[in-house]
Amino acid sequence: MDPTNEEVPADRQIVTTRILEAPRELVWKVWTDPQHVLQWWGPTGFTTTTHHMDVRPGGQWRFTMHGPDGHDYENWITFLEVQAPSRLVYAHGGDTHHEEVDFRTTVTFEALPGESGRTRLTMRAVFSSSKVREFVIREYNAAEGGKQTLARLAGHVEALARGTRDLAVEPFAMRRVVGAPRELVYRVWTEREHLAKWFGPPGCTLGATSLDLRPGGVFHYCMRFPGAPDSWGKWVFREITPPERLVFVVSFADERGASIRAPWDATWPLEMLATVTFEPHAGIGKGTVITLQSSAHDASPMEQRTFDDGHGSMTQGWAGTFDRLVDYLATAK
Questions:
Q1: Could you tell me if 224 and 230 are in contact, meaning their C-beta atoms sit under 8 angstroms apart?
Q2: Residue 98 burial by CB count (10 A; 0-12/13-18/19+): exposed, middle or buried?
Q3: What is the mean pLDDT of residues 197-207?
Q4: Residue 73 and which of 99, 112, 128, 272 are 20 to 30 A apart at CA?
Q5: SS3 sequence of 156-194
Q6: Measuring CA to CA, which residue among 277, 328, 313 is closest to residue 152?
Q7: Which residue in 153, 134, 140, 149 sits closest to 287, CA to CA?
Q8: CA 91 to chain CA centroid, nearest Å
Q9: Measured in Å, how far apart are the chain's first and last C-alpha atoms?
Q10: Within 13 Å and on the Cβ side, how many CA atoms surround 81?
């Protein structure tokens, strides 16, 4: 029988709660349907391969979680209680069956009274001792991983509830795990003296730069490549949430800072909306997960097509830029 909160000391539990803007029945379906689970299960940057999923008392779910740093985590779950659509209890373990990764989780799905279409989801993991709990937090960043997992669940289920789960137009996205604390990574993205030393693809150097880090402020920069004319660009900041998130509008620019068309394609969008997030890496090795998303901003259909067709070249450019960032972080303070 699953113990109550009063029977289990707090130092043996990890409790994660989130209010979801979606009805309980839909949240339950998204938790128990493997086609939905693969869309959200795991912390930021993780993907999941389900080998077998049988949601019934005594049934098992065996799956592999693929970390954003390339590490694979073998997992198994045995369902102990299945009370649709209100409660799941399961035993969870890893590929080694060591005590450190074996624990019991209770997930409750609570329809909020008087608030149609909202659900409080609580995930409570109980460990055999406080030492084991401390181990999974220290080695696997488990508390942060639970928060990120429920955030991904919210994004998926709430889009389904709104009827806006449209995969026809996806933003450009890249993700990289770096072995540096989030506060340092954020500073390297938001301080002019740091940006000047790593921003841009290989072979690029930054000439004149100015940075006004505030909503409405501008990062204006000159990119220089050997044998090529100077190329100016700018970011206009919309959101600044240290050390978690930056949102800014990107465009090519002239020397004075006015937005201009891309010099190599007049059908490229005049502006792009970029979001960069910095999250703790919930996996072995710690560090920070950087996620960059970019979409065509106020684009015509032709500009949207050009942007979509350009994802390959953007991937190449940003991959080189992230490589330079990783190298720079190894020496930055």
A1: yes
A2: exposed
A3: 92
A4: 128
A5: HHHHHHHCCCCCCCCCEEEEEEECCCHHHHHHHHHCHHH
A6: 277
A7: 140
A8: 26
A9: 51
A10: 13
CA distances from 229 to 226, 257, 265 (A): 8, 17, 16
- Tally Cβ neighbours within 10 Å of residue 105: 19
pLDDT digits (tens, 9 = 90+) for 68-99: 988 999 999 999 999 999 999 999 986 554 55
Structure tokens, 151: 């955030």
Could you report the per-residue pLDDT of 223-273, keeping only the tens digit for each?
999 999 999 999 999 999 999 999 999 999 999 999 999 988 999 999 999
CA atoms of 223 and 202, how far apart (whole Å)? 11
At residue 51, what is the residue type?
H
Question: pTM for this structure?
Answer: 0.79
DSSP three-state, residue 206: strand
At 1-24, the pLDDT tens digits run 444 555 899 999 999 999 999 999
218-224/231-241 β-pairing? antiparallel
